[in-house]
Write a structure and sequence with these properties.
The structure holds 3 protein chains of 3 kinds. By secondary structure, chain A is α/β, with parallel strands linked by helices. Chain A has 12 helices and 15 strands. Chain A has 2 domains: 106 residues, Aspartate Aminotransferase, domain 1 (Alpha-Beta Complex); 262 residues, 3-Layer(aba) Sandwich (Aspartate Aminotransferase, domain 2). Chain A has a 7-stranded mixed sheet with strand order 2-8-7-6-5-3-4, sandwiched between helices. In chain A, strands 11-12-15-14 form a 4-stranded antiparallel sheet, covered by helices on one side. In chain A, helix 5 packs parallel to helix 10. Chain C has one domain: RNA polymerase II/Efflux pump adaptor protein, barrel-sandwich hybrid domain (OB fold (Dihydrolipoamide Acetyltransferase, E2P)). Classes of the chains: A alpha/beta, B alpha/beta, C alpha+beta. At the A-B interface, helix 1, helix 2, helix 3, helix 4 and helix 5 of A face helix 1, helix 2, helix 3, helix 4 and helix 5 of B.
């Protein structure tokens, strides 16, 4: 079915006004040599048929009954109000707020989003969003290069490997070198980045470290920030946003730029996207920040209002000298995060963080106490933990068959981590889920 | 700074969200910030407590050292659930949107966003699919991505598709990074340092070239609005990596010399990249891959109806020719078991194929790597796939036919009152110039746009492309009725008349919107980019310093 | 449109006021009008060496960004700090309070390459 409202009478009327005989005449400007050949696109479907097709595809997925899978994407409760807010057609079907007089809803909600991110991260300015945490991290690195006029960046191996790949790709364009600072993956070690390793890196624009890191471990962020600064480099903190309810704000431990994946804030896992990238920094660096910014101002009548501001940084004005080429961002997902944070509030967010952490400790404790698994690392962790158990890959596959996803198999990405699983817990993880995991693992031993 | 309570009278008649009073000494607000609605201990969503069993089981685990803990809780607003809803509903009332207003923003393709697409994206089987679940659990997601890629190939004539880029500009970056990889693989990476871009190009094109490490060279347009072929030939050489060109151009005009353009680019050994933002004009009429382009990005949020969301999310898949295929981002969804023709035929008929298996192929040694985490904006793939299946072959052709017809209809109904810099057949959008109104009456395109707002219509795109003075770019799309188009014509003609008879009235516009014209200079000079809590100073931060090369503050 | 007689002008819309071995430089009112409301200027550093027609800073308005091109060569000895807080001075008084920097002239012969007020008025007509 088509969504065009035009009847044949409508079309005839317009054709006559335009002064052409048929609609084909409107395409006479396409030279015959390049006109399209036949294509093999299926015929139209009416609504019930297209629904059946999408239901067919949805039905070919198996959503696990019990899941401990995180690895950068987390199943949290999405409060009902979030869907109501982002489902509002005035938010969903409006455009980038270039005409501010009729976009105050979008603009004010972005201002609120920027404010919330600053408050969570302890930073002075936050952008209106990026595509995801990986690209926010990559853009943060490029920003640090501009600020320091250096062309090498250092990234901890504790940063999500998928994000590090994106960083490498983004740096390949302008020829920025990426050096990886290894983390101690040995059994019983901390599983964290060693600040003492930073000095040996020489001149770098920034050091990027994650908190918690990909393996769930808590990094010595203040010491890493100090080490970066001692080298004249910026410190980029890649953080998990719900953890900021209980963990120290990056601004307090010396982060210069913060990048984060905002998916845990009210956004469905949706096979990888759309998510939302968060970025925050200090006001002194704002002119080198990529992405949109909304600012408060007054209108001609003295009413408070909001506008896109400092637009001279952006592609539509700065063109080849722009800080970034970003145009479309993830606005509606940023609104979801805004609705989420206001719906849970500071106490709710702390409950989410504490419950997630408590269930992670619960699951590690339960598995260790019956000798099924051991923590790989000795250091403290928050909502995700790396566990060693014999024959992990085979048993993980067996559990998946039974509708239980026992976390993420690490050896695929990191051969040194044979027989190791990364398990996450959130506030949705129940005691029963953990009990089922224990039983299932026992049965596959 | 005092904040007025929401007034009880409402001159606009659109609901209590609006401030009725104009002028006055107080700084009035239309809807307070959510922070200003906060009251200590108000709660909305609640969560369970940690169970005793959980505490006990976790008791032996490492404690969190005090050094990593937050000293002060974040000051998020404390509001009730009703507060949250009322706040965002009232904010929503302040917006124009496609679902309420005609929105003829040129180059943005603000067509109707079908709601069945939303139904599909919210199906739990798709929305709750974790991207790192074992592949056996995600066959539906993988099949959808594979089928969408197959459809985009057919529509565009390209050999292969990457769905990974999250937006058009992101697709452009992907294209330029693949260009770089291609030239490197052919030993010409060092010598090819430039990307050619027409002077009518969207700002993302040169910004992308810079991000990919290239220097931008601008090529002028000719008097017919197409790229100047002679200037292009003169600029092409062994140091050129690529041409990035929009077709139809940002003037809404088809590049009728596109054959010669592509020939010249190929001959010079460069990559021909098409900005596919204007695909809505040519579905079924021109297939860029077939015509000889090496790469193109699609904008799913333009041509394929996924909602703009106030600025995103979008999706910018990239189609490539065979010679660029090895460089596509990884991983890619592939069919590992099953016959592609059979899988497609069954899917088109509404059936699953038994024994079929999809996977993510990460073994792509020449890939440029990744441009975003995971696989792309999957939720937008669901919407676009739903849209393409709904329209089908006939529907897709009708889209372009009706979009082009509507744009030309507006062209002929308005070309006597507004200058038309390029008076020829348009495609899906038409670019007028407000220079006559500016010269004769001092009324600028900006003024005209503000006047349009008072008629409950979102203005067209203004001041783009840069090569047209006082540009006004109108793109009606195929989903607007004849009555809407005629109403718009009436409004524009009325504004043109008013520009002559009472220009001051136009300069005062808008007068019926929730806020009037806003002071953008003040916003940039004294940036106020976040809420200030009562214990912070009232004044926004001092104007920020410019780019520095100093070490950061510790 | 007439411009101050005592100044020399460059094609890139900068002006020079000579005072002995030193000169004050700025952008013209024409440039400021073209830019619109100026919101920010990246000032050169004291001690920086300017070379004639080379870029020495950036000026930014709400809708545009423009490089600044030095009208003469020399060493920057003072910059107008008031522009940091009040870039709008460039719009209000481009030839007076909106001055950008004072330089120690490297080569007074360079002034011959610049226009006088009448020539600049013709140039911008």
């Amino acid at each position: 079915m088509t969504y065009s409202p035009h009847t044949e009478a409508d079309r005839a009327h317009m054709l006559e006004a335009v002064g052409v005989a048929s609609v084909d005449d409107l395409f006479a400007d396409i030279p015959p040599a390049v006109r399209a050949g036949a294509w093999s696109v299926p015929p139209p479907l009416v609504e019930q048929e297209v629904r059946a097709e999408l239901a067919r595809l949805a039905g070919r997925n198996r959503i696990p009954e019990v899941s401990f899978l995180g690895a950068g994407v987390y199943r949290h409760l999405i409060p009902s109000v979030v869907g109501e807010v982002i489902g509002r057609p005035e938010f969903a079907t409006s455009y980038t707020p270039y005409q501010p007089e009729v976009s105050q809803g979008t603009l004010q909600s972005i201002y609120e989003f920027q404010s919330l991110i600053c408050e969570l991260t302890g930073m002075e300015v936050a952008t209106a969003s990026h595509y995801d945490g990986a690209t926010a991290t990559a853009e943060a690195a490029l920003m640090a290069c501009r600020l320091t006029r250096r062309s090498r960046v250092a990234v901890s191996a504790g940063v999500n490997p998928d994000h590090r790949r994106v960083l490498e790709t983004y740096c390949s364009g302008p020829g920025i070198e990426v050096v990886t600072v290894s983390i101690d993956l040995a059994e019983g070690g901390d599983g964290t980045t060693d600040p003492a390793a930073v000095e040996a890196l020489g001149e770098i624009a920034c050091l990027i470290a994650a908190q918690p890191n990909f393996y769930g471990q808590l990094e010595p962020m203040r010491e890493l920030a100090d080490a970066a600064h001692a080298s004249g480099a910026h410190f980029v903190a890649a953080v998990e946003p719900t953890s900021l309810a209980v963990l120290e704000a990056p601004g307090a431990y010396g982060a210069d730029i913060v990048a984060a994946e905002g998916q845990p804030l009210g956004i469905p896992v949706s096979f990888g996207g759309p998510y939302v990238g968060l970025m925050a920094a200090r006001m002194a660096s704002v002119r080198q920040m990529p992405g949109r910014l909304v600012g408060a101002t007054r209108d001609v009548h003295g009413r408070k209002g909001y506008v896109l501001t400092l637009q001279a940084r952006e592609q539509h004005i700065r063109r080849e000298k722009a800080a970034s080429n970003i145009c479309t961002n993830q606005a509606l997902m940023a609104l979801a995060a805004t609705a989420y944070l206001t719906a849970v509030g500071p106490i709710g967010l702390r409950e989410v963080a504490e419950l997630s952490a408590a269930q992670a400790r619960h699951l590690a404790g339960a598995l260790e106490s019956v000798g099924l698994a051991e923590r790989r690392f000795g250091g403290s962790y928050l909502n995700e933990v790396t566990l060693r158990l014999p024959d992990a890959a085979r048993r993980h596959a067996a559990l998946a068959e039974r509708g239980i996803v026992a976390g993420h198999v690490l050896e695929r990405g990191e051969p040194e981590l044979r027989d190791t699983l990364l398990l996450a817990a959130t506030e949705l993880t129940t005691d029963t889920d953990i009990a089922r995991l224990v039983v299932a693992l026992e049965e596959t031993a | 700074m005092s904040v007025a309570e929401a007034p009880s009278s409402d001159a606009s008649g659109r609901g209590a969200a609006f401030s009725g009073a104009a002028g006055g000494d107080e700084l009035t607000v239309v809807e307070p910030l959510i922070f200003d609605r906060s009251r200590a201990e108000r709660r909305a969503v609640r969560f369970p407590s940690v169970s005793a069993a959980a505490r006990q089981a976790g008791a032996g685990q490492p404690e969190l050292p005090a050094s990593v803990l937050r000293a002060h809780a974040p000051r998020l607003p404390e509001v009730s659930e009703l507060d949250v809803l009322r706040h965002f509903n009232r904010l929503a009332h302040l917006n124009m949107a496609i679902d309420l207003n005609f929105y003829p923003l040129g180059s943005c393709t603000m067509k109707y966003n079908p709601k069945v697409n939303e139904w599909a994206a919210r199906l739990p089987g798709l929305a709750e699919s974790h991207p790192l679940d074992p592949e056996a659990l995600s066959q539906g997601s993988l099949e959808l991505m594979w089928l969408l890629a197959e459809l985009l190939k057919e529509i565009s004539g390209f050999a292969a598709i990457s769905l990974q880029p999250a937006a058009g500009a992101h697709g452009e970056l992907t294209g330029m990074l693949m260009t770089r990889a291609f030239h490197r693989a052919h030993g010409e990476g060092e010598q090819r340092t430039k990307v050619l871009v027409p002077d009518s190009a969207h700002g993302t094109n040169p910004a992308t070239a810079t991000m990919a490490g290239y220097q931008t060279v601008t090529i002028r347009s000719n008097e017919r609005g197409g790229i100047d072929l002679e200037a292009l030939r003169a600029a092409l050489g062994p140091d050129v990596a690529a041409l990035m060109i929009t077709n139809p151009s940002t003037l809404g005009i088809f590049e009728d010399q596109i054959g010669e353009v592509l020939g010249a680019v190929k001959e010079a050994g460069a990559i021909a990249y098409m900005d596919g933002a204007n695909l809505n004009a040519i579905l079924g009429r021109f297939r860029p891959g077939e015509a000889g382009f090496d790469a193109m990005h699609f904008n799913l949020h333009k041509t394929f109806s996924t909602p703009h969301g106030g600025g995103g999310p979008g999706a910018g898949p990239v189609g490539v020719s065979e010679r660029l295929e090895p460089f596509l981002p990884r991983p890619m969804p592939v069919l590992v078991e099953g016959d592609p023709d059979e899988v497609r035929a069954n899917a088109w008929a509404g059936y699953s194929t038994p024994g079929v298996r999809f996977a993510l192929d990460d073994d792509r040694p020449q890939s440029i790597g990744k441009v975003r985490s995971l696989y792309g904006n999957f939720g937008m793939f669901v919407r676009a796939y739903t849209y393409i299946r709904s329209n089908g072959d006939a529907g897709l052709r009708t889209i372009s036919e009706d979009a082009v017809l509507a744009a030309n209809y507006l062209r002929v109904r308005l070309h006597d009152v507004f200058d038309l810099p390029y008076d020829r057949l348009s495609k899906h959008e038409v670019v007028f110039s407000g220079r006559r109104q500016k010269r004769e009456h001092g009324v600028t395109t900006l003024d005209i746009a503000k006047a349009i707002l008072d008629h409950g219509i979102h203005p067209p795109t203004i001041y783009f492309p840069l090569i047209v003075e006082e540009a006004l770019m109108v793109e009606p799309t195929e989903t607007e009725s004849l009555e809407t188009l005629d109403h718009f014509v009436g409004v524009m003609r009325e504004i043109a008349e008013l520009a002559a008879s009472d220009p001051d009235a136009i300069k005062r516009a808008p007068t019926t919107t929730p806020v009037g014209r806003l002071d953008e200079a003040a916003a940039a000079r004294r940036p106020d980019l976040r809420y200030r809590f009562p214990d912070e100073t009232d004044a926004p931060d001092a104007p920020p310093a410019g780019p520095t090369s100093e070490a950061p503050t510790v | 449109m007439s411009y101050p007689d005592d100044l020399r002008y460059s094609k890139e819309h900068e002006w020079v006021r000579v005072d002995g071995s030193r000169a004050t430089i700025g952008i013209t009112s024409f440039a400021a009008d073209e830019l619109g409301d100026i919101v920010f200027i990246e000032l050169p550093e004291v001690g920086a060496a300017l070379s004639q027609f080379g870029t020495f800073g950036v000026v930014e308005s709400v809708k545009a960004v423009s490089d600044l091109y030095a009208p003469i060569s020399g060493e920057v000895v003072e910059v107008n700090e008031a522009l940091r807080d009040s870039p709008e001075l460039l719009n209000a008084d481009a030839f007076g309070d909106g001055w950008i920097a004072k330089v120690e002239l490297a080569d007074t012969a360079e002034l011959d390459g610049l226009m006088d007020a009448a020539a600049y008025a013709d140039e911008t007509a």
